[in-house]
Write a structure and sequence with these properties.
This protein has 205 residues and is mainly beta. Helices cover 4% and strands 52% of the residues. The protein has one domain. It is built from two helices and 16 strands. Strand 11 and strand 12 form a beta hairpin. The longest helix is centred in the first third of the chain and has 5 residues.
Length: 205
Amino acid sequence: MRYARRAAGAACLAVAAMLAIAGIAGASTLTQAPPFTGTVKAESEGAISMQGTIDIECQKSTVEWSVEEHGTSVATGGPLGTFTLEECGQDTVTVFNRGRFELHATSGGNGTMTWSNAEFTVQRHTSIFGFPLTTHCIYKPEETDLGTFTGSATTKETARLDIWNPSASESGLQIPLKATDSGCGEIALLKGSYTFTSPDYLVVE
């Protein structure tokens, strides 16, 4: 495993996040000796699904996060250079705005990740009595807590992101839904997980 081969000399990504009294992420510092700025890559572990009034499932998803901002007065973050949902059966997913990620520390090299300024659409293709029917839904994550980031210090290999929200009715994450077709309903629950493939060793402190 790449982690095992490179653990002793691997460049370590570190993020130090301070929480303001109101609970809003404040300053953070990103270091990799020298300080890290670059691209963090991740791939889905199996399918990414969205459940609600309509259900979709995509077998493949990739993410490339460009880390551009960090320091004593800003939270660590940056735009997504790539965000794809592919192999979604007969359904169509189109990403209009990939948005940006921010990573916030909790403890033990682990943390949470938020997703903002994104927008993507789903076209669910079905048929009724032989007549084609398309339901069009638009989703817009805005300062949405994606779930739990588990760092390499815990996994003993590459880091991972599990998409979920403990306040949801079941394991998953409710994604904000813009007003579109009535068939979209009011709840869209995103489920899945990602493995960070680059850098090999990733922790948040």
